[in-house]
Design a protein that fits this description.
The protein has 178 residues and is mainly α. The chain has six helices and no strands.
Length: 178
C-alpha cells in the first residue's frame, strides 16, 4: 500500500506527463518565444480590432480646399511679383485675402479638439503674411521662402489628417460590417 500510487488520493498525485494536451495558457509563451512575429501580429490585431483612437483632429475637407486655394493664389502672386506684373493694388488685395483666409481656417480649426498643432501652424502662417504686408514687401520668391515653408507645414498636417481619416473609416467599415 505504501509504494502503490493507485491507492493514494487523487489530490496528492503528481501530474502524469503522457499524451495529455498542453493547457492553452501554458502553450502561449512557448509559441510566441519561437515566433515573435506571431505575438506582434496578435497584439497589432487586437489594437486594430479593439480601438479607434484619434490623436489629431478629424480631417476637414473645407479647410483643405481653402488651404489649396491659398497655396495656388500665393504661388501665382509670387510668379507675378517675380515678373514685375503685380501692381500695388493687387498686392494689397492679395495680402487682405490671404490674411482673411488664414483667419477663417483658424476659426474652423478651433471647432475641433486635438487641433493645437494646426492652430499653431496657422498662427505662424498669419504672422508670415502680416510681416510681408506690414513691410510693404512685394511677395517675390526671395522674400517668401519662410511663408512657403509654413504653407507646406500646414499642408503636411492636412495630409496626415486625411490619411488618418481614411485609416479610421476603413476600420469603422470593417468593424460595422461584422
Amino acid at each position: 500500500m505504501g509504494s502503490n500510487p493507485e491507492h493514494l488520493p487523487r489530490a496528492r498525485r503528481s501530474p502524469q506527463t503522457g499524451n495529455r494536451p498542453t493547457p492553452f495558457v501554458t502553450a502561449l509563451p512557448s509559441t510566441y518565444a519561437r515566433h515573435p512575429s506571431t505575438l506582434l501580429a496578435f497584439v497589432f490585431g487586437l489594437l486594430l480590432a479593439g480601438c479607434s483612437v484619434l490623436f489629431i483632429a478629424p480631417y476637414d475637407a473645407t479647410t483643405d480646399r481653402l488651404l489649396t486655394d491659398l497655396t495656388v493664389r500665393t504661388e501665382t502672386v509670387v510668379v507675378e511679383a517675380d515678373n514685375d506684373q503685380l501692381s500695388v493694388g493687387e498686392q494689397e488685395k492679395f495680402y487682405a485675402e490671404a490674411e482673411g483666409t488664414v483667419n477663417a481656417m483658424k476659426m474652423r480649426a478651433g471647432l475641433y479638439a486635438k487641433n493645437e498643432q494646426e492652430i499653431a501652424a496657422l498662427d505662424e502662417l498669419a504672422k508670415r503674411y502680416r510681416a510681408l504686408h506690414e513691410h510693404h514687401a512685394s511677395p517675390r520668391t526671395s522674400l517668401t521662402t519662410g511663408l512657403r515653408a509654413t504653407l507646406l507645414d500646414v499642408q503636411q498636417i492636412q495630409v496626415a489628417k486625411k490619411r488618418s481619416s481614411v485609416f479610421s473609416s476603413s476600420l469603422n467599415k470593417t468593424s460595422t460590417s461584422q
